[in-house]
Amino acid sequence: MINEQIRDREIRLIGSEGEQLGIFSSRDAQQMAKEQGLDLVKISPNAKPPVCKIIDYGKFRYEQSKREKESKKKQNIVTLKEVRLSPNIETHDLETKMKNAHKFLSGGDKVKVAVRFRGRELAHTAIGRKILLDFAKGLEELADIEKQPLMEGRSMVMFLIPKKNK
Length: 166
Known about the structure:
By secondary structure, the protein is an alpha/beta fold. The protein has two domains: 3-72, Roll (Ubiquitin-like (UB roll)); 80-162, Translation Initiation Factor IF3, CATH 3.30.110. 36% of the residues lie in helices and 32% in strands. A four-stranded mixed beta sheet has the order 2-1-4-3. The protein has a four-stranded mixed beta sheet with strand order 5-6-8-7, covered by helices on one side. Strand 3 and strand 4 (51-55) form a beta hairpin. Residues 2-70 form the Translation initiation factor 3 N-terminal domain. This is Translation initiation factor IF-3. Its main location: cytoplasm. InterPro entries: T_IF-3_C_sf, T_IF-3_N_sf, Translation_initiation_fac3_CS, Translation_initiation_fac_3, Translation_initiation_fac_3_C, Translation_initiation_fac_3_N.
């Protein structure tokens, strides 16, 4: 809220230099802001009494948008990539899938490794567990196991996350 939108009876006022001016009526505070050629902006509406500051509103909005953009740049978005295997996968195919997972992990992404069982393969889930653990062992210098191999429906799933560099 700015200027005439502020309808509170009394407010705590902060000056343009950041100094505490005390408690004023909103009308007096608006008058003071007008004399300085600046705007009265409500900073903390939930405080008792609400806190308002005398500032240039356009400049305030510009700096606020700059801070938001800066914080978005610093965010690290982790995406989930999936690698699907089968219980009777050949070693070369497994190495190719490991290379893909290596690329995902070095990019900072989580990797979901799934072994899909079809038909009678479901009776041999131990083979799938062994494949997943070998897969994790092949990537152990780059990744940690976030979630151990576990059956989810017809698939056995394991999650890998990139290791933290210390």
